[in-house]
Every structure is written in structure tokens, then in C-alpha cells.
Amino acid sequence: MSGKRIWKNVGRYALRFVTLLIAISIVSFVLVSLSPVDPVQQYVGAVPNVSMEQREKIAEYWGLDKPPLERFFLWAGSILHGDFGTSLIYRRPVLDIIGEKFLASLALMLTAWAFSGILGFTIGCIMGNFHGKWPDKILKKLCLTMCSIPTFWIGIVFLMLFSVQLGWFPMGMSVPKGLPADQVTIWQRIHHLILPALTLSFLSFANIALHTREKLVDVLESDYVLFARARGESRFQVLRRHGLRNILLPAVTMQFGSFSELFGGSVLAENVFSYPGLGAAAAAAGMGSDIPLLLGITLFSAVFVFVGNLLANIICSIADPQIREGFDHET
Amino acid sequence: MERKSTAVAGPVLEVKNLSVSFRMYDRGLEQYDLKVISNLNLDVRPGEIVAVAGSSGSGKSLLAHAVMGLLPENASVEGEISYGGKLLEQKDMERLRGKEFALVPQSVTFLDPSMKVGPQVTGPRPSRERRQRQREVFDRFHLAEAVDRLYPFQLSGGMARRVLVSTAVLSGASLILADEPTPGMDLEMALEALQCFRELADEGRAVVLITHDIDLAFQVADRVAVFYAGTTVETAPSGDFLRGPEALRHPYSKALWNALPQNGFQPVPGFQPYAKALPKGCLYAPRCPWRTEECGGEIPMRELRGGMVRCIHAT
């Protein structure tokens, strides 16, 4: 790919990124303004005997008496300066909280993502290879069932089975209770991670498997596989040389495109397991009317999903010969 | 086009009474067998090109797939396919394809789009000799060294066809089945493509040329087998097709000749029967001007004036 083309693409993605963030800011700000959430009430909370005058003073201090448009520009202006405000429930800067919670979530999401990707792809390959025979039939029914199971429900079932009945895994949280943070071992963290990660990976695993199966069946019925067999390539050689080669790219693209589902799923999975990640924080912010944190997480999740799709596009353009070499031919 | 027939030995490939049917699902779970090829006969000798001509849906491509053992799993095959006098089983076909049998498919979609041409043609883990041989074959078909590193979508139409033909040459196969190698080509290109097959035949290979460009087929082939509704109705030296309908035997072949643009463009009423609703006895009977009572019985293939015909009235 020529240097000029790279810069053109970088420019295009940057523009898309900026417009996306502007649109998300406007929409989420409007939604929050229209919602019945009252930040003053949330701030005052359970403290009794706060007079109307005091409430008005708080509202004035926060600029809540100004018209919505002006409020939006004030908020957007601080965001541009890197100031996301202070979380009302954690009483700490929003960015610090996002950073801290995201690290915890990242471990969970990465594990689930890798697990569902590898397992989904493998099972999809098995189904595709045995297309129409009994291993395919059984696995396909299993996958379809799994597709229709809600994440939170499978999380609860896992908890009941593996934590309550069998006692193999802890009931929740990311570290053992009552232990100083510096004494927590990596094994304890992993031990706490397994069940939530397994739950989260259930979300996309069956989808990936079914998608891979469909692709592989298409490829194995294609003209070029027929011709490869006519040239004397064995079944295994055909699978390795033509099958995997042609399904790997769509699978990887889909895997990177699944960041949004992953983030959405983490909200459910983290809540079921009381796992202190970004998903749980998002739910807490929503429930607790913590508007600065809620808006911060919304913007952050948009960036997260955008990066996933961007990675998918970049990998696609590097790995797919038709796109890669096509560029050179175009100009 | 110059033609030197070197056909002397016995047939390399002999197909006798071949029938291919597919297990299909009707409404609900009802199954039935769709017979797409019935009682088909064909033989090819070394150094000979036999053109298989017929309209779409007459079972031409399936014949090639049946010989290579490439039919899908819901297909069942009856009859005999023998190679060099030996009767072939499915596992023999799997062993022989790519070595003794080669398929030349019709278009670039038969090449893996994600794989460079060179490695794709040499096959998995090629030896140094095989790579060298591939280079020689590509040179013969005027494919430059840079072509090895191109992806199929980067090939021009002509290059793609030469790549496909070179796979057959590279395999060293003595039987080449070319499945519609000339569709959508202008006359000059088509003749050039067919010339390749003539050269391969002249080297002593046997070539089955499946085509519906019948007038092209007469030009290059030694014999022509005419297909109708999944069976052979006539096998004749291609000279007979050049001489005209009087030299031909089967009424369908005559009709085919008369339907060619240069011979009057006369259509025959009716259409080829669908495989699910084949008539009893002669498959051409519903459209045949010579039809009599006896046409409803079994019609064997018989020798007539140096060719074969499946018609009791042919003289």
C-alpha cells in the first residue's frame, strides 16, 4: 500500500472517530437531560433536612440553573480539557475510576474474548468438516440452544452449580474477602476470574461457531475445493490449504467486531458475579444517578468499540490479498 | 484446423451404461431418486479428442465428476467406468485423480482466491522437481515467472485459462476431462484454447471435451458424442458433422445440426424432458418425427456406419 493511501485512510478514520464522539456526546447528553434523574437529590442523598434554599445553591454551584445548551457546551468544553468531572458515588475523578475499573474488566473481557474465539472457531471447524453428519448435528443443536440462553441466566446457573453446589469457585468479587490488596496472589485473581469469563464467553461463542461452520461449508462446497480435490489433494490437505485459509479472515474480522457485544455482556456478567469492573460500574452509575460517571463510561465504551472495529478493518486490509493487492492495481 | 488422429490402441476410458441419480427430498420427508444420467456410453482412446456435446442440463458436467469420483454424497452411481481396461471403484478414482485423470474446469472461480497461483498449482509440499516442472509448463503456455506470485483475481481471462490447462499438463495425466473450457469466448480465443487440447491429444493423451459450442467441437475433436437428457444418443466421427445431416444417424443430431445458425437456425418444437419426468423408452420420442409404437420399449446403443446410435429407426 502506498504512503499516500495510508494517510488518506488515517484521515478518514480520524474524521469518523471525531464525528462519532460528537454524536454520542450529544445523544447521551440529551437523553440524560430528559431523564427524571435529579443530580441534586442524588448528591444530598439520605441526609435529612436539606432546605430548598440549600438545594438551589447546590444547583447553582453546579450550573444546573443554566439552559441545557449552555450546560452541554460547558460539559463538552471540560471534556476537551480532559476533565470528566467527579463521580458522585465514588467521590473521585471519573477518569481515575474508568481507568481502574477498565483494567479489571479488561482481564475479564480478554479472557472471555480469547476463549470464545478459539473455542468457537474450533467447534465451528469441526461442525463444518462433518457437515450433515452426527457430530455436526449434535454440536449445532447445542450451539443454537446456547445462542438463545441469556447471559445473566447462565451466570446464575454457573454460580449455583460450581460455587454453591460444588464449591469449586468463589461466589463473586475479583479477590478474596478481607485480604489486603498486596497479599492477593495472581492465582487467587485467576480463580475469581474463571466463572465470570466463562459466562461472558458464552455470549459470543456459539455465534462464532455457527458462523464459522456456515463459512466452512460454503468453502468446502465451492468450485475451488472441487478442483483442488480433482487435482488429487486429500481431504485433510483441502481443509488445511483452502478451508482454514478462507475462513480465518472472516472469523478474525467478526471477532474484532464483537467488542460491542463483549462490553454489553460484561455489564450483565459483572453484575451477576459482583465483579468490580467497568460493566458493574456502568450499572451502578445508572442506578445511582451518577451522571458524570455514566457519560464518561458511555464515551469510553464508544472508543472501545470503535477501536475494535478499526482493528478488524486494519487486519482485513493487511491480510486479505484482494484488498491489499487491489489497492496497488487501482492506482 | 489440422488434425492428425493417432488413435490406435484400445480405449483409455470406457464408460458403460452409466447412470447417476440423486436422492432428493420432495414435499415433507418424502424421498425420491432423480436420475440425471441414464445408460450413458462413452469411450476415449489415447491421442483422441472426444467432444461431448449437448444442451445445458443434459448431464455433461456430471459425467466428468462421476469419472473423477467427485459426485456429492447424495449421488448414487450404477454402471461401469473402466480405465485402461480395469474397472474403477471410488477409491481408485480418488487415487488416480490428479495423477492419471485431470480436470480442466471452465473458469477462474475454480482457483482458490486467497492463494497465489504458483503454490496452488504445484500442490502441497512440492518437491524441487515439481516446482521446476511447473515453471516449464507455465513457460510452455507463455505464463511469465511473475504469474506464479499472482492471486487468481489478478489474472486476465486468457491467463486464467492457460493456468487451468497447465494444471492438467503438470499432473502428467493421460486422461484429460475439459469441462466447458470455452464459454463466452470469441471464436479466435476459443479456437486458441481448443488448440491447447489438440496439442495435448497429439502428445498421446486422451481428451474428453465437454462443450455446448458444438460447431467448435467438430473442428477440433476426432469424435463427437451427442448427449440428450442424460444419455448418449449418438457417437460419430466429427467428419460426419461437417458433412451434414445425411451423414448423421440420430434424429436429435440432425435437428441439432439444422439448428446451428449457419445451417438454417431451425428450431425443433418441444424441450428436453426434466430428469424427474423422463418418458419411457426413447428419451427423444416426444419430439421425434420418426416416432412409432416400438419407441416405447428399451432402445439399445447399436453400431451404424462407423458410429454408434441409440435409435431403432436410424439408417
TrEMBL record, chain A:
Any matching Pfam family: BPD_transp_1
UniProt KW Membrane keyword: yes
Location within or outside the cell: Cell membrane
Main subcellular location of this protein, as a coarse class: membrane
The organism's place on the tree of life at top rank: Bacteria
Transmembrane helix among keywords: yes
Sequence ranges assigned to domain ABC transmembrane type-1 in this UniProt record: 102-316
Membrane-spanning intervals of the chain: 13-34, 102-130, 150-169, 190-210, 293-315
Membrane topology: Multi-pass membrane protein
Sorted UniProt keywords: Cell membrane, Membrane, Transmembrane, Transmembrane helix, Transport
InterPro entries: MetI-like, MetI-like_sf
Family membership: Belongs to the binding-protein-dependent transport system permease family.
Stated name of the protein: ABC transporter permease
Organism of derivation: Neglectibacter timonensis
TrEMBL record, chain B:
Cross-referenced SUPFAM superfamilies: P-loop containing nucleoside triphosphate hydrolases (SSF52540)
Keywords: ATP-binding, Cell membrane, Ion transport, Membrane, Nickel, Nickel transport, Nucleotide-binding, Translocase, Transport
UniProt catalytic activity: Ni(2+)(out) + ATP + H2O = Ni(2+)(in) + ADP + phosphate + H(+)
Membrane topology summary: Peripheral membrane protein
EC code: 7.2.2.11
Subcellular location: Cell membrane
Molecular-function GO terms, alphabetical: ATP binding
Gene3D superfamilies hit by this protein: P-loop containing nucleotide triphosphate hydrolases
Pfam families hit by this protein: ABC_tran (PF00005), oligo_HPY (PF08352)
Record's keyword annotation contains Membrane: yes
Protein family (similarity comment): Belongs to the ABC transporter superfamily.
Assembly notes: The complex is composed of two ATP-binding proteins (NikD and NikE), two transmembrane proteins (NikB and NikC) and a solute-binding protein (NikA).
Protein's name according to its UniProt entry: Nickel import system ATP-binding protein NikD
Species of provenance: Neglectibacter timonensis
